[in-house]
TrEMBL record:
Organism field: Streptomyces coeruleoprunus
InterPro entries reported in the protein's UniProt record: DUF475 (IPR007427)
Segments passing through the bilayer: 30-53, 65-90, 115-136, 157-178, 190-214, 239-256, 268-293, 314-332, 338-355
Keywords, comma-separated and alphabetical: Membrane, Transmembrane, Transmembrane helix
Coiled coil: none
This protein's name: DUF475 domain-containing protein
Pfam families in the cross-refs: DUF475
Length: 382
């Protein structure tokens, strides 16, 4: 199962590292390896959240996610995206931007640094909305019950997450963007942050709204299909759901790609702290993206999210932390190690809580089967 799911990732790793060593030497080999590890550590929470969405798709769309999706992730976000940033910032064409990256890496990095405020605001708002919508939703299983229970009650207020996101954006523009860090020092980028943050918020609402609409339609049609199939059995008829399922899966696929793009912001920007070489960056982050994709599918097929019920909670808290860190980096530089460790810590804590919960449930079932009459209480918090 592991080899089947991660086979392509292992192959791409071997080929990518071998190519880096052959084309550019051992320095490139080491940097590409470091970038791969960086991408995996920063994007583990991405895999957990993606798995929660991907499990709603059939095997066909899971394969699309691993094939076409990975092409979009690697070439779109890890190669084209940095070039687009430079092209827009420097007001040059994409080809000129690539030449700039190859011939003048220092100037290329400076242009990306100047665009960081816009990137952080867009990605921060998108990720913040994911976190807020999660914690304001009423759910049966709660990890930090003392926090999630009152927040779920507050979530009954319409558009509360949007209001809070806009307040955070305004505070970020006033607090951080007035002295945003650029390659030439500090300058006021309030308008840029506000515009980019609103764009991130709109992107989330549009893509999330479309995927949610078709997902709801799919659930309604599945219920109706079940009823019609029961009636049609005697007549030998069948009810097809291919068209609607395709639409629902397609928009969920788009939602996953936008999610991946937002999660990739910190990895792409963090990579500039390690190297200015655009092809080393694309190769290293691309290898890491392959593992994130494979890990997502592995979590779905193994039913890991069903066995370790707090993992999704930990991943969403990691998303919230990443959103806040992205906004802070508008003015202050934060080491990528800190960003990665916060996500790893939250997910590890949620995993350990899930293990503890499973042990308590197993003990309770054992006591019940043994007829002891004892009952072990299972805590949903930590």
């Amino acid at each position: 199962m592991v080899l089947k799911t991660f086979g392509w990732s292992f192959a791409v790793t071997a080929l990518g590292l071998a190519f880096a060593a052959w084309q550019w030497g051992w320095e490139a080999f080491g940097i590409v390896l470091i970038l791969s590890i960086l991408e995996i550590s920063l994007s583990f929470d991405n895999a957990v959240v993606n798995a929660g969405i991907l499990k709603k798709m059939n095997a066909f769309w899971q394969r699309i996610f691993l094939t076409i999706g990975i092409l979009i992730a690697v070439f779109g976000m890890r190669l084209v995206f940095p070039v687009v940033i430079v092209a827009i910032s420097a007001k040059v064409g994409p080809i000129e931007a690539v030449q700039l990256a190859l011939d003048k890496p220092g100037q290329y990095e400076a242009l990306v640094t100047d665009a960081h405020a816009a990137i952080a605001a867009f990605g921060g708002m998108f990720l913040l909305m994911i976190f807020l919508d999660f914690i304001f939703e009423e759910r049966e299983i709660k990890w930090l019950a003392w926090l999630e229970r009152p927040l779920a009650k507050l979530g009954k207020v319409d558009m509360l997450s949007v209001c809070i996101a806009l307040i955070v954006l305004l505070l970020s523009a006033v607090t951080f963007a007035t002295q945003a860090h650029t390659s030439t020092g500090h300058m006021d980028k309030s308008a840029t942050v506000l515009l980019s943050g609103v764009a991130g918020l709109i992107t989330y609402l549009v893509v999330g709204g479309l995927s949610g609409y078709f997902e709801d339609k799919l659930e309604e049609e599945e219920e109706r299909e079940h009823e019609e199939e029961e009636k049609a059995k005697a007549e030998g008829k069948q009810v097809s759901m291919v068209g609607l399922a395709g639409k629902a899966a397609f928009f969920l696929f788009l939602y996953l790609e936008v999610l991946d793009a937002s999660f990739s912001f910190d990895g792409v920007i963090g990579a500039f702290a390690i190297t200015n070489h655009i092809f080393w960056m694309a190769l290293g982050l691309g290898i890491g993206a392959m593992y994130v994709r494979s890990l997502t599918v592995y979590l779905v097929r193994q039913g890991t999210l069903d066995d370790y019920v707090y993992l999704e909670h930990g991943a969403h808290y990691a998303i919230g932390a990443l959103a806040v860190l992205l906004l802070i980096t508008i003015q202050y530089e934060i080491n990528e190690v800190i960003t990665g460790l916060i996500g790893v810590f939250l997910i590890a804590a949620s995993f350990l809580s899930s293990v503890r919960r499973n042990k308590l449930l197993a003990a309770e079932e054992g006591n019940a089967e043994g007829g002891t009459g004892e009952k072990t209480e299972v805590s949903s918090g930590v």
